Fold these 2 entries.
Entry 1:
Amino acid sequence: EDQVTQSPEALRLQEGESSSLNCSYTVSGLRGLFWYRQDPGKGPEFLFTLYSAGEEKEKERLKATLTKKESFLHITAPKPEDSATYLCAVEGGGSYIPTFGRGTSLIVHP
Amino acid sequence: GAGVSQSPRYKVAKRGQDVALRCDPISGHVSLFWYQQALGQGPEFLTYFQNEAQLDKSGLPSDRFFAERPEGSVSTLKIQRTQQEDSAVYLCASSFRRLGNEQFFGPGTRLTVL
């Protein structure tokens, strides 16, 4: 059974204080690992897809990396508007159904 | 429209009532997913459509839950005889291809069963 574990559950940062969020996964034959951002009262918004170990993708202050067991979402010099819940999902094996983690709630204080 | 839309955004039902939740996916998107999201949790899979075919309904919690997508575009999730444990946010997502593809989510319908 595919499993996705995100840590920490919650993270508080000061504006400009860089950090990383972790997504550990177990899946046979990873087809894709996805990062989403979810603001309160809204649906998840797609950020990145990573397909193979060693792959990296960047968007503004966010950078996602992937190994065979985990993915990191690095946030560089965060701003208050980066506050949100960040969700990780994996798709693999014989299933086309993505399995989501519980998310990391990020709060960035000005 | 530019994105996935869902209606209603909020629904309050008395226990035992039937409800119907609507999802309008992005035009041309083949795949459509329904998820249930409890507070503080990630989305949990309910069911999946490829065009009009419901290929997987293994996540539906009981036979009170039913989903359809008769013309391969708009989808409806119906819950019969609602129970308090059905209270959650119901998310719809669509994607252009079948596999390994990012999903575009609607804003969700928050269902509260009293």
Entry 2:
Amino acid sequence: ETGVTQSPTHLIKTRGQQVTLRCSSQSGHNTVSWYQQALGQGPQFIFQYYREEENGRGNFPPRFSGLQFPNYSSELNVNALELDDSALYLCASSERQGGSTEAFFGQGTRLTVV
Amino acid sequence: AQKITQTQPGMFVQEKEAVTLDCTYDTSDPSYGLFWYKQPSSGEMIFLIYQGSYDQQNATEGRYSLNFQKARKSANLVISASQLGDSAMYFCAMRPYGQNFVFGPGTRLSVLP
């Protein structure tokens, strides 16, 4: 079991609403990245935060935004929800940027937009 | 652009047998890591094994081994002595240095009793 915790685990929102998802990173990890996983697909990169700064973003519109706090926990905010935003949202924390360390994932938040 | 290809949408294996899950990747970055994750129906991504692009030897972690062929850009996962609990989705992923993960579409493994 990893030290990465996501909340909530499930939620249902109505189209047009706003949602905030939370992720607490593993102790000692300063990098958090967020991924969207649609049903039956692999996760797609949304953005990454390193020491409270966004330092990479995937092909997602600006209504997907985020924050990283001094304790390295993070939030993902999605405005003006659309039906296609229904997915599993995963966050991953790692010790540092780079390709040579594994990332530990949280259990995910299942978002359903109706 | 980075890309991961997993050509096996689904695989079946008999309990106690070995199985190989295929993964090929494409990148122009010289430094990268290759990963395999297991995702049960609960949704959590469970780290299985890691291979660095400069590692000379293939990685092994218990029943998992990674068959790394750099020239062919392949990173196949071998699971020995399959167990019923191995039934899950398996994702191959690549992480070029300083960048995010790129995941493949996944392979669903079913272990038969």
